[in-house]
Amino acid sequence: MRTNEPTPVAAIDSAPATADHRHFDGVDLEKLAQRIPTPFHAYSATAIRQRIGELQSALDGLDATICFAVKANPNLAILQLMANAGVGADIVSIGELRRALHAGIPADRIVFSGVGKSADEIAGALSVGIARFNVESLDELHTLQRLAQARQVIARAAVRINPDVDARTHAKISTGKSENKFGVSIEEARRWFAERKQLSHVQLNGLHVHIGSQILSLEPFRLALQRVAAFWRELVQAGHSITSIDVGGGLGVCYRAGTDRPVAAADYVGVIRTALAGYHGRLLLEPGRYLVAEAGVLLTRVVRIKTGIERQFLVLDAAMNDLLRPSLYDAWHDIVPVSDAARPTTRYDIVGPVCETGDTFARDRELPECASGDLLLIKGTGAYGTSMASTYNSRPLAAEVLLQDGRYAVVRRRQHFEEMIAGEQPARNWETA
Length: 433
Ligand code: LLP
Known about the structure:
There is one protein chain. The protein folds into 2 domains: 1-44 and 289-433, Lyase, Ornithine Decarboxylase, Chain A, domain 1, CATH 2.40.37; 113-286, TIM Barrel, CATH 3.20.20.10. Helices cover 27% and strands 23% of the residues. The relative contact order is 0.16. It contains 12 helices and 19 strands. The chain has 433 residues and is an alpha/beta fold. The longest helix is centred in the middle third of the chain and has 20 residues, at 218-237. α2 packs parallel to α9 and α8 runs parallel beside α9. The strands form 3 sheets. Strands 3, 12, 13, 14, 15, 16, 17, 18 and 19 form a 9-stranded mixed beta sheet that branches. Strands 4-5-6-7-8-9-10-11 form an 8-stranded parallel beta barrel. Ligand LLP is lined by residues 69, 72, 90, 113, 173, 210, 213-214, 248-251, 286-290, 325, 329, 383-384, 388.
């Protein structure tokens, strides 16, 4: 097994001491932060295209479609970039479907996953003719049949297999174990195929698997795909035609320079090629994090240094509402000052202004000594950053900026207070239900 990391993306280099953190995709971040108030998210378009390119070349020769997991970063400009690169979408809600279509991703490159698709969502997706429903329960299969029949359309469906594989990642983002809510067992899927003649308006001819996220070794992928491949062979033997296999997402990235060693796209695709040898139908992939995580940074300024009773706190203007991952998963994100001025280092607990102890980005982290007003980067925030943001503590959603070759475009301006409270109103018109 090769353990080489993917080529470092765009300008932000992961080598800690000597790296240039001032420039990202050719843009001077100090200058950018003078124009756009912190905190804000910045994404490198070049880095995203580089990742798409790496995966596309690894897939060379295969009939494969990359469907970006919209939940990782649903900004329309990011989705437009995906559309222009020929990438489709993996969606989990009608909102994501509307975003994908709005950004120009064609319906025939959209797949719909999730255990709780509502009848309205299924109907909406049927009406635009998406490529495939990744069906996760018998009840959902029956609902799909009923709604497709009512509309006199044929729904294309894949069964999401729960292969009972440990993805060896954080428990909250592991999805492929039998105790998890996702997918169905191979035994159950076998029954669906045996009875598929009863489905007049659902073409059940696909398999889907997604075992979790931020997976840093090939083994879980190999194991899951071997189980899916064995089932595919069994189905073919039994006379079923399987025209698509969706291998999900999950490829991990480097959050901690020098420690995280992600698998290379070519090695990952190598595992798919080996496991599915002899399969000539369409292959679908649903990467989210791999395409965008390392292409994003969160720019934030030091509000103040607080000497606490036991610890030194570096209080930032970014908080858990802008980036939830450290609070929710104890996730590590590298944090660096943008300025490379030589300074002694010290140890800080790096926190935000939100009123809970969980609003902590890092504990006891060694950093060059900082002062109020210093600009810092929280790295690896391009995936599951803004998409999990909230207005907790009535903090507005941060701006998002796309960078490319020395230029920048604001792709979401910071939320105005009026937008934050839009929809709220005093309790004036009391009614009875
Ligand atoms: N396909 C399905 C069906 C999924 O549920 C997911 C992610 C993906 C694809 C994309 O996975 P990726 O390639 O990004 O690993 N908020 C968490 C991650 C949750 C992932 C949920 N599902 C985090 O910040 O780590």
